[in-house]
Design brief:
Elements: E1 2-5, H1 11-24, H2 36-42, E2 48-53, E3 56-65, E4 75-82, H3 91-105, E5 110-115, H4 120-128, E6 132-142, E7 148-157
Parallel strand pairs: 4-5
Antiparallel strand pairs: 1-2, 2-3, 3-4, 5-7, 6-7
Length: about 160
């Protein structure tokens, strides 16, 4: 497996993996895949990582700003998605490990993730790479079917940035 920077031509494979996550019903509140331009605008232009092998892209990770306020300039929201055929094989751990390194190199002191309680694999993954559970936001949003969902907030504070 090779980890590398995401480029715009990766979008079709990234979008397909994102769609697989949406179909699980517990990866995101999103219901549709955005156009690349929308996705690109919503995500930080660095700290976008692809995991791939010779047979294609296995997963991806990227950061979004946590807030537009300058005081939160070192805080970012994590997205990590693994292709259905590659889950449970260490791809997510490799991606998050690299994302942590790149985020610290870029000056981020806090990474946060909102995870649905049903997404046990994502919770375990985040805990393995040093995220801690902060709390539960109850009934924070509705699914397309109108079902209220809780969201668990996890964060990882850098040990080298913001000390």
């Amino acid at each position: 497996m090779v980890l590398r920077a995401m480029i715009s031509t990766d979008w079709p494979a990234v979008a397909n993996i994102y769609a697989e996550g949406i179909r699980t019903g517990f990866a995101t509140f999103e219901t549709n895949i955005p156009e690349y331009a929308q996705w690109d605008e919503a995500h930080i232009d660095h700290c976008r990582i692809i995991a791939e092998e010779s047979n294609g892209i296995l997963g991806w990770a990227a950061l979004s700003p946590a807030s537009s306020r300058c005081v939160y300039g070192g805080v970012a929201e994590v997205s990590v998605y693994i292709g259905a055929d590659h889950r449970g094989k260490g791809v997510g751990k490799a991606l998050l490990g690299q994302l942590i390194k790149e985020s610290e190199d870029a000056g981020y002191w806090t990474l946060q993730s909102g995870i649905f309680p049903e997404n046990k694999a994502s919770i375990t993954l985040h805990e393995k790479v040093g995220f801690r559970f902060l709390g539960k936001r109850e009934r924070i949003g509705k699914t397309q079917a109108g079902i209220w969902k809780d969201n668990l907030l996890f964060e990882r504070r850098s040990k080298i940035v913001g000390q």
